Amino acid sequence: MTKKAVCLLSGGLDSAVTAFIAKKQGYDIYALSFRYGQRHTKELTCAKKISTAVGAKNHLILSIDLQKIGRSSLLASSPETIPNHPINEIGRTIPTTYVPGRNTIFLSYALAYAETINAEAIFIGVNAVDYSAYPDCRPRYIQIIQQLARVATCQGVKGKPVRIKAPLLHLSKAQIVKKGARLKVPFSKTWSCYRGGTKACGRCDSCQLRLKGFQEAHQKDPVPYKMR
Question: Which helix (H) or strand (E) element contains residue 62?
């Protein structure tokens, strides 16, 4: 019997590598992305490309409006600007790019979808090394969500809870790039920049971490940057 997995797919580097890891582990991929009021939809365009590249059986893009209940510089309605922290200061404090409750909301939808299609696992590309300041990217958070899957779902109370898999949780960005290269992830189809446009800004926290990861992994980032 074929294994099924729901993969949260943002269109970014980490979620793309995570999806390819799920494929490598023998899962049929059911991709799940969100239009949640983010500043740009470039990442959703990339999510569609990654979904196709990984051979997903289905790709759902759900619309929810976190602008009405949350505050973050990543939201289109936010008056705050995207921060450009020095690389050595990234992760020291919770940044304005943190979207309140986002991963919890996304995983709740993923749990519902997983039960509906009888999936065995949910894959999420959270990382505690580069984004340890995000409360919903930490190991303890994933443990609690797994506990929730055991007690709050039909599959869970029957003794077969959906497994929450976060294979990048303890990896550096360079390790993630290396793993993606081995899995032949099409990095050119991913988008990590917090800003939209045809070229990545190269200055926001996400761009800086991505560039550093590729540099330390001795790989060339195929995404175009304004700074180059």
Answer: strand 58-63
Surface-to-core class of residue 16, CB atoms within 10 Å of its CB (0-12 exposed, 13-18 middle, 19+ buried): buried
Q: What is the 3-state secondary structure (H, E, C) of 159-179?
A: CCCCEEECCCCCCCHHHHHHH
Measured between its terminal Cα atoms, the distance across the chain in Å is 48
The CA distances from residue 73 to 6, 68, 180, in Å, are 28, 14, 29
Range of the domain at 45: 3-172
Global pTM exceeds 0.85:
yes
The first and second tokens of residue 166, run together, are 């976060």
In the chain, % of residues over pLDDT 70: 96
Q: CA-to-CA distance for 172 and 158, rounded, in angstroms?
A: 36
Q: In whole angstroms, what is the distance from residue 72 CA to residue 111 CA? A: 25
> CATH number, domain at 26?
3.40.50.620
pLDDT of residue 91: 65
* pLDDT tens, position by position, 162-190: 999 999 999 999 999 999 999 999 999 99
